[in-house]
Amino acid sequence: MSLAQVHYTSAAPGAEGSEGPAGRFTAVGPGVSGALLTEIEPLVRYELPEGVADRPSDGELRSLPQSFTYAVLSDGSRLVSRSAPVRDTGGGSGGDAVRGAGPGPRQGIRFHAHAVHLPPGVPLPGDRPPVEAWRSPLWVSTTPAGAIPDPLTLPPGPTAVSEGLDDFAVSRGPWLAAVLADLRRASGPTESGGRPVVLVERQCADVARWLGIASVTLPRESAERLTFTTYTRRPGSSAARVVGVLPGDAAAARAAGLRVHECAEQPPPGGGTDDVWATTAARVWRSRSPELFGEARELPGEPFAAGPLAVTALCAGIALGPDGRAAAAGWAADRPYALDAKRTGQLIEALTSPGIDDRTGPEFDAAGRLFGALEGRSPASVTAPLAAMLVTEAVRGGNGSLELPRRDAFTGPEGAAVAERLAPEILTELGDTTGPRSVARTVQLLRVARLLGVDRTDALPGIVDRLAPAVLAEAAAEESRAGAEGLPDFAPALLELLDEQFEVRTALLGALDRIAPQDPGAVARFLERVTLPFTGTQALPHLRMCAEVPGAMATLGGDRAAVWHRVLRAAGLSPFAEPLVLRTAVGLVWEDRAPTVAEARLLLEAATSDSHRAAGTWARLVDAALSASAAGTDEAASLAHDLLRGFPTEIGGRERAGLLLLDLVRELRTGAPDPGWAERVRTLCAQAEPVEPALRERAYAALVERLLAPDRPGAELYDFVHGDDPDLIAAYDRTARTEAVRTRLRAQPAYAADCFSVWTAHPHAGRTWPPVAAALLEEVLRPAVRAMPAEDVAEVEATVGRTGSSGRADAFRAWNRVSTLGRLGRRIAGRVRRG
């Protein structure tokens, strides 16, 4: 169909305003309304570059840039136009630049714009992209004769912009990927919002070539959204999505915050992009294979997905980087049905090329997924190189996340060659005991060894003995570091290994069972996160106990004795037959605390002393006795006595001294301890240092309570008084002042007589005792005697005489007389005051 033409020219020679020279429409074809002309006018205006002479030569005039524009108008129609400078020959202020021209140039330069209006849905002739109209011979620099020209048809004509694009793309190699990435973003369905991509070239024809590259590379609908102009002085105010500027205007574009590509300057350092599609497209152009873009678009996937283009490029023999190869492998893994056998083989050959030395972890992961997708779908002979690459990377690269092939992945000599090459390396690393090795790494090596048929029977016990503690340590470190819940990172691969290899499962579970008595809490926490398969015929008593304790705790709550019984039953063994189950059970139930005395008594009676000795649980019972001593329970002293009898050689040091001190407390209160009480208390406290303050107080209290009793041996009291121990004497003083002693003194004359004898018997025994005894006489005994009836006082005096001497009785009468006279004197003084 015919397309309406529009012509526009500058109105006055050399006149330039802020928006370019003023002008007017000189011809308008049918169907172009006045409203559209208002939109078109700013699109076709032209502004000369800086520094253009008033009277340029013909060569200089031809070298000036031309503005080739493609725009979308408000009604959905489109405009393709060319604005070019022409020589002003003085045709009058209202005429065309060359109309009525004389024999030679007169002055200045005008511009002439020629535009083609495309109604909505109407393409250019031949359905060509707009950029291919560049350099068409149908563009004119004068307005056709007649006021309004007949509609002109734009025949197919040559497409000069498409010629030589390969050479141009190669010459712009450093900028290709970054420019293509920006052009892709600019071609999106959302408007660019007045922020165009700026291409800086010395020739506007090169900007058109960039747009030609875009029209080949981008899908058709994206390319048609890419509005552009090949030359402008004002990129910041342009409505186009891509604009071209000369180097002199690049600084202004950067100052406006636009995305600027200075393709006329030195290549940018690095100059790349993380857009894998754009990077792959750039490699295709540098390989002079633009036909591959059409092939890639025939494959399933999103328009700008890197996978289809990367697969097409690799199958065509184009080398890609690791990101491109990963994209190709990932796309093919998701769509293994999309490629025929030939292209599948080509892709695998490209991915496994021995010349590649920059493979990355994500690339290997994608290759592993591809192998998993092709396994069973493609012949083993096709996928064998991929399997060999993955296995080699698993061993040499340390990539623990790889999906490994099955044992039947190799056919013929491929598997034997890989096994022969890797077996020594696998066995050497598995047997290395000099450095730490992660659980994931060990699991990966064991899986590869089985895959390749490597015999590791002799090395397996040592491997597992190192693997078992590493499993617990890594899980605990991960949990403490991040408070992680659920499976540790290595757990899925470990469980898969145990499912695959019965001999490894048996050995590892046995090793963990042997470790459990040493740290049952850690094993229990691990089993709570990772459910190991130990439901078979192996005994594994300790693992079964560790697995049982969370449920028992949840069900039985704070009844630790009941939990202990249930956990012990889960072992399936008697502590008499296997004493170590005692250690595991105690560690699980009382991991971070000591048992109470009642719980310790339960444990002591549940097994023989030999069982506790073999299990080492006697130490927990000692902790229970010493910890309970702070609470002042008499049961702790009884437990201490039994522990000293049951483990006479095992208990030593300060623990033994503490238990002996508890036992002495028991004897002081209930029995007849060996002589030398005070000295034994002092000695045992010194040996038990740092002794718990409560235990020291209990020992001191038991000693002085016995010394305050009337039936204590005189020798013990003598040793106590003459030992001159300030702490013991202070404890005696405190106990003597208690209400229990005061009540006894008032109620029992014999006891009061005994205390008088003791508190007056050693007036020169060191420096500590005499003032304490004198104070007790005055502050404790005297108030008690004052409160007695006369007959009780007489009995006290008689008892002192009977148990001591006549002099002692005289001393009591004198001491008591002082008290009586004191009372009498106070009474007389009171009467005098009242009189």
Automatic annotation (TrEMBL):
Pfam families referenced in this protein's UniProt entry, alphabetically: GAP1-C, GAP1-M, GAP1-N2
Residue stretches of biased makeup (Gly residues): 89-105
Domain GTPase-associated protein 1 middle: residue ranges: 166-260
All residue ranges annotated as the GTPase-associated protein 1-like C-terminal domain in the record: 285-812
Biased composition (Low complexity): 10-23
Domain GTPase-associated protein 1 N-terminal: 3-147
Renumbered residue ranges of the record's region Disordered: 1-26, 82-106
Name of protein: GTPase-associated protein 1-related protein
Provenance organism: Streptomyces sindenensis
